[in-house]
């Protein structure tokens, strides 16, 4: 669903900017070009400023063309947004109703379980839900601490029990001169293969409860008999103190971010404030490279600061390189540090799901890039002067109206360097290729890395798409020449990303299309900002008619956004009761509820152990050679059992075929 939403964002951009290219090239661009009475050169020799709205003289009667183009683009965008929102909402509903039973619909994550000296957390959960939700409560599963230190301590205790029960003491003679685990030679480890049979027979070792080794934390997954009961429980306060027995609908099993479930619930608001302050500090620090970049775009200031560069900068190609291409490259390289840092901030906030963490990082990266790439860049000068610009709110439209057309060259170059170049890097997978080469030829690691496929980086690609859409809307009537480059980018992006999603990336987890409300809100913000900038431009150009018609357009756009927020957004936050009840009744009639209940106890598995760990811990109950596994050819097509070596010790109550599959 997330991949579909991502491609729908690209398709929406292609449609709206196709309309914008036609309108602006045939209506706005001629008005800009002939806005002043001047002798024109050949079009390739004209400066870029001639094609912007700066070239239109004050008091011109032709500014109605810009106002009309703004109306057409805004109305087209709102119509397309409405039908896209409606279509994606319908697809989300079909995904919920037509897919197999989802365990997360029956599961509630409960946190802030109150501590009791008389009973464990598990007993508290059982007693609470048996008392207050007896008709719908099914069972529960506790969450355990899973930090690095806790895992190392647990593994050490398991290994100690194995060595202790294997009677290693009789073969280990401690010696300070030997470097093995004990004093015996390293060959003494072969005793495992012969004496582990005795260990397997001990009932205490076979039925070892690993949950007792791990420490319970104040969180648990509670399973309910129906989807409707789980949803009601998640939405209703469970205690008079809202900081206790906090409930949320559980994420999907593969989407759970286990390391954050043990964070005390009382810490979450502190963590969010801390990450907000850290993000603001990071934005302020990032002003340093932004100021340096904008210093390069100002040729006059650059020559005054560095007089020895005057002769070099008089050359045309050096002037274009330093003031046009180099600032965009430096900005792009600096922006590569943003997504990992924002992902770290989102993890520290305490998100309970991986998709929620990625969605939060996506919003942070989006806000950061729009602020730095657009707002900071359109105001040249030092950091102090940039802050002084926003000292008066009334001056913002006029300042933007003056500054945005002057940055037309920078934004166009940014689309070429960051947009077109990023697509080629996406196809080549430069970072993954570099890491693979380092591992193979420098670190000499010969393992096959194909078993570690990549998941799609929505937190970097969605903000990139929305940023280019933002630039397109804000610059459409001011600098129309940027639109063809954007249209070509989105057309190439559709081909590239569709291929990557189908053939390169895999879906490990997803948010169910939660990125579309972000795209919708960003588009509305882009439209409103473009209208505010146009209002400032019309005021500077002394066109009262165009200014008067722009104000109702802003109001109508905001009303349309509010309608969509009331009509579609609630379905992205909560599932409808009628849908859940119908699905529950359908499953009861088909007899699928019992199967769903059985699966609930196994899908939320916090600790995943390899076959080596299972054999080492004595959790399996079949002893035999690997070659003796029944139905090997059927379960493993193309693999010859004669090539297998060694033995496999299995102690488990599973069927042997199912054990072989696992």
Automatic annotation (TrEMBL):
It is found in: Membrane. It is a multi-pass membrane protein. Residues 1-84 form the CSC1/OSCA1-like N-terminal transmembrane domain. Pfam families: PHM7_cyt (PF14703), RSN1_7TM (PF02714), RSN1_TM (PF13967). The chain crosses the membrane at residues 12-34, 62-83, 273-292, 325-345, 365-384, 465-497, 518-540, 546-564. Keywords: Calcium, Ion channel, Ion transport, Membrane, Transmembrane, Transmembrane helix, Transport. Belongs to the CSC1 (TC 1.A.17) family. This is CSC1-like protein RXW8. It comes from Carya illinoinensis (Pecan).
